[in-house]
Amino acid sequence: MTRNVIEMKNITKCFPGIIANDNITFELRKGEIHALLGENGAGKSTLMSVLFGLYRQDEGEILLNGEPININSPNDANKYGIGMVHQHFKLVDVFSILDNIILGVEPNKGGVLNRKHAKAELTDLTKRYELHVDLNAKISDVTVGMQQRTEILKMLYRDNDILIFDEPTAVLTPQEIDQLMITMKNLAKEGKSIVFITHKLDEIMAVCDRVTVLKQGKHIATVDVKSTTKEELSKMMVGRDVEFTIEKNPQQLREKVLQVRDLVVVSPFSKRNVVDGVSFDVRGGEIVCIAGVDGNGQSELAQAISGLIKPKSGHIYLDGVDLVHKSIRYRNDHGLSHIPEDRQLHGLILNDTLAHNLNLKKYHKEPYQKRGIVKENPINRDGKILIDKFDIRAAQGVKTLSGSMSGGNQQKSIIAREISQESDLLLSVQTVRGLDVGAIEFAHKQILAERDAGRAVLLISFELEEVMSVSDRILVMYEGKIVGDLDPKKITVEELGLYMAGSKRDEELMNKVHEEPIIKSEPHIRKDIKHKPFRYKKFNYPSYNKLFQKQDERGGDRR
What we know:
The chain is an alpha/beta fold. It has 2 domains: 4-238, 3-Layer(aba) Sandwich (Rossmann fold), CATH 3.40.50; 246-335 and 424-526, P-loop containing nucleotide triphosphate hydrolases (Rossmann fold). The radius of gyration is 25 Å and the shape is globular. It contains 19 helices and 24 strands. 41% of the residues are buried. The model is unreliable at 524-559 (pLDDT under 50).
C-alpha cells in the first residue's frame, strides 16, 4: 500500500464568527494527485493554508512521513518540502521572473547575488518540465499563464516534493489548462505529491487519483475518482442534484442597446491594434458571447466598453449615447453593469466591508447619502438582502472585509452588485471564474433572467462549455477582429475551435458595413437616478476626498 506523506489529523481552525475547518482529517499519498473539492467558502484554501504555514491550526496535528511536525510559517513549510501556488499569485510585479523565483532563497557568493548560477539552474528546470518562461521579463508584462508557471517554478526551485495548487485553472485559457494537466501528471510520475483545489469536475475526473469533499468546514468523504461520477461528486459538494444543462426560454428580441462601431484599441506594450476595427450590436433580450483564445483582444474590448481604457478611435453607443468620452461614473449611472475580469484589481476594495462593496455604485445617491455624508443603515440593509439572495458566505456578514473572503465569494459579491443594478447592458468577463458548480448554476440562471427581462447581455468567456450553453449568439475574436457571427444551435465545438484558431473566418461578415446608429442629441437619463450635487468635503471616505477635489478643480467627471 502506498504510504502517506502527509497526514492532517482533526484539524480545526476558527475565525471570528465562523469555524472554517471543523475537525478535518486529510491524507496525501506519495505520487498521487489528490483533489480537494467543495463549495465556495467550504474551507479548502484554509486547510491548505494551515499546511503551508499561513495559518496555525487551533486544534489537531500534522504528520510528515509519520512524524509530527510544527509548521508556523511558509519558511517552515518550505523546509519540509511543502510548496503552494496560491489562487491569487504572490508575485512582485516590478521584479523579473528570475528574481521572483529566487526571492528569499537567493544564491550568493561572498554576499554577492549570483544570478548566473540561478539562471542556469532555472533554464534546466524549464526544459525538464516544459514550463517555458522568459526569465528576464517583468511580471507586469507577461500573461497570467506565464505568471502561474513562475509560481510552479518557485516550488520546483526550492525542491518541494509536496505541491499545493489552489484553483490553478481559474485564470487560464483551455490551451494553458491542458498544458498544466500534463505538467501535473509528469510531476506525479516523478514521485511528487499534489493537492489540487478546484471546482471543475471534468479536471478532477481527468487527472486526479482521489478526491476529498468538504462542506461548510467539515469532511464529507474521500473517494477514488475511478469509482465515482461528476453527478455524485456535485451532490456531495452542494447537498443536492445540480443541473448541468441550461434550459432557456424562447428569445424576445428588443431594440439595440449596445452598438460598437469601428473600434480600435492600441496595446500600451506592443503598440499594435489589439482591437482592430470591431463593429457589432447587442439587442435587449439576447445574450451575445464573445469567444476566442485569450490574448486576441477580448479583454481590451471589455475595458474599452467599461471605460477602463481609452480607445484610439471608433464609437461605443449605449442607448444611442456615445460613451467614448464619458467617465466610468457616467456609464455606471446610465445603464451599464460590469463584472470585470480581475475581481481584485477592478471589482472590489479589498480592505473595505462587504456592505460597502455591494453598494459601490450607489453610495453617492439618495437614500445612501445625504448632503455628502454616507448613511450606513441603508447600505447595510441592502447588503444583507444581497448576501441572502446570492448566498454569499461571509463570516461577519455585512462587516466582513472583502479581502478576507474566498475568491468564489468575492466573485459572487460582484455578480450580486452588478445584476442588482437592473441596467440596460450587463457586460461580464469570465463570470463564473472560481465558482463551484452550484454557484455557476445559480449565476447562469441570474444571467438568463436578465435576458428574459429584456436586458442586453454581453459575455466574454474562455470556457467553451459556457459559451455554447448560455449564449444566443457567438462572436469569435481572432487577432483583434470579429471573424465569426455564429448560432450555437447550428455549430459544433470543433467548428467553433476552427474560428478561434484562425483556421476559418467569415469574410463577408468582416467586410460587412453596419448601419449607422441612432444618436441621441440629449443625454440618456435614467429615471431612477437623482442628479444632485455631490459634496466631496463632507464625504466620510477620506481616501477619496483628494481624488474628487482634483477632479472638481479640472472640471472632470467623477468616477
